[in-house]
Specification:
Blueprint (H helix, E strand, L loop, with lengths): L15 H9 L4 H25 L12 E2 L4 H20 L8 H20 L7 E2 H24 L4 H6 L5 H22 L4 H26 L4 H15 L1 H4 L3 H19 L13 H21 L11 E2 L10 H24 L7 H23 L7 E2 H40 L3 H9 L8 H4 L11 H12 L1
Parallel strand pairs: 1-2, 3-4
Helix pairs in contact: 2-3, 2-15, 3-4, 3-5, 4-5, 7-8, 7-9, 7-13, 8-9, 8-11, 8-12, 9-11, 12-13, 12-14, 13-14, 13-15, 14-15
């Protein structure tokens, strides 16, 4: 069907049907938002459950171990842990729903109560009333933040571009936060995780510096110094679990990230009219940090190597492994989720559907799984895990799905905004009034606008048009 502007003087069909079809076919950004939020909520909720219930060694206690008030730092962690869950919970609900914050509080309280109840049967853990209150508070804060942002920030295409939310690189930066958190939990148990923490910070810092050079810097939204400080805050948020036990080491790593971003963000990113799709080059620059992190993930902490492979069919933890081994597995799952997102992004410019991307992503991720699990097989204290390998491969495919869900949502936002602008630009109300006055003739024809009516003189033309308009009304 031709656009509105293509209607000529020989066309008597009014543009009413076209406008109605265009309005009816406006993209449903609310549906894509809820699908993306549900996928992210499921991912983060699974990580929280696994993190809080590891190492899954349950026994019947002789007497319940319940504390009224836990350590203050643990309570701060519990609040932060549930903030994104409360935020994403409201994102999964339809726009305009009522009682969102109360529902989020109730859901957070139920989930936390369930976790604390299960922890009664784990000898390595204890249950705390204050944990339930802190988790509930975190879910409520996250939900309240979502309500305030939704009320003050209308997320249209213009704001999406201004905040760089359409850049897949920002999705990587967001997914790095739970990975940093899990690695920081490992840092609290072993200093060997500190190099990995720094490598993740430099990986994310390299991406943020690229976004600053190619996006924020070009529009003057953020200065290089501001981006450097923001990267430090981002890193400390992810590394928060390690701050209590290793504050100097974590602070030094944060300063390193800030300095690196400050230097990289000042580097000229090309002329102002350069191609805006800079993601591939940014990923190539940042990839060595992530590759080194994956290598260290497989070999640290160092242990005496065995001449034979040690392979478990189940998860490391059901055979007497420590809680730290389970956290390492969770960290690997988060790392491969990010890897799958990254691999899908590298093919994202081709605009391929997920079904066409899943195969290549799985093939490349399988190579990384074989490398990680193959190196772990020579560590008697850990060993390779067949079920763990399947989880890593599934995590990579899930990460690729997250990329496609995010791309679909941003695409719908942009299309929706473009459609609204086209409808506003093609507004034909004057034409429709003229069409009604002229008996169906298109107003766009100049010779019809200036022709003399069949009855009356030229001076009576206004009266004739007025009668037609009155009759149409």
């Amino acid at each position: 069907m031709p656009p509105v502007d293509s209607f000529s003087s020989s066309t008597n069909t009014p543009p009413f049907p076209l406008l109605l079809v265009r309005q009816r076919d406006l993209p449903d950004a609310d549906a894509t938002r809820r699908r993306l939020a549900a996928a992210l909520l499921g991912y983060l909720a699974a990580l929280v459950l696994l993190l809080t219930l590891a190492p899954f060694q349950f026994v019947r206690p002789d007497s319940p171990r319940v504390l009224l008030l836990g350590p203050a730092f643990d309570q701060a962690m519990n609040v932060l842990l549930f903030v994104p869950l409360g935020f994403l919970y409201l994102q999964t609900r339809r726009a305009g729903g009522r009682g969102g914050v109360l529902h989020a509080l109730g859901a957070g309280a139920l989930v936390s109560l369930g976790i604390e109840t299960v922890q009664l049967f784990e000898p390595e853990r204890y249950s705390s009333v204050s944990d339930v209150l802190a988790n509930t508070l975190g879910a409520g804060l996250g939900a309240s933040l979502q309500v305030r942002l939704s009320a003050r920030l209308r997320l249209d295409a213009a704001r999406v571009r201004r905040l760089a939310l359409e850049l897949p690189l920002m999705g990587l930066v967001y997914l790095l936060v739970p990975l940093l958190w899990l690695n920081a939990v490992g840092v609290a148990g072993s200093a060997w995780a500190l190099p990995q923490l720094l490598l993740l910070g430099l990986f994310g810092g390299s991406l943020l510096a690229a976004v600053q050079r190619e996006h924020f810097g070009r529009v003057g939204l953020v200065t290089p110094r501001g981006m450097a400080l923001a990267s430090g805050g981002w890193f400390l948020l992810g590394a928060f679990p390690a701050l209590a036990l290793r504050p100097l080491a974590v602070s030094a790593a944060a300063l390193t990230v800030v300095g690196y971003v400050g230097v990289r963000a000042r580097y000229a990113g090309g002329p102002a009219g350069a191609e805006r799709r800079f993601e591939a080059d940014a990923l190539r620059r940042a990839a060595p940090f992530f590759a080194a992190y994956l290598l260290l993930l497989a070999v640290l902490p160092p242990e005496p190597l065995s001449a034979e492979w040690v392979v478990h069919w189940g998860l490391p933890g059901h055979s007497g492994a420590s809680k730290l081994a389970m956290i390492r597995l969770l960290e690997a799952v988060a790392a491969f989720t990010l890897l799958g997102y990254l691999l899908a992004e590298l093919r994202g410019r081709r605009e391929l559907p997920y079904a066409a991307v899943a195969g290549p992503v799985a093939l490349r991720a399988a190579g990384a799984v074989l490398l990680v699990e193959g190196l772990r097989a020579f560590q008697p204290g850990y060993g390779a895990s067949m079920l763990g390998a399947a989880l890593l491969l599934g995590a990579a495919l899930y990460g690729a799905a997250l990329y496609h869900l995010q791309r679909a949502h941003v695409r719908w936002l942009v299309m929706q905004e473009q459609t609204r602008r086209e409808l506003a630009a093609e507004e034909r109300l004057p034409a429709l009034v003229g069409w009604a006055r002229g008996g169906g003739a298109a107003v766009g024809a100049p010779h019809q606008r200036h022709s003399t009516p069949s009855t009356g003189s030229s001076g009576s033309a206004p009266m004739g048009r007025g009668k037609a308009s009155s009759s149409a009304r």
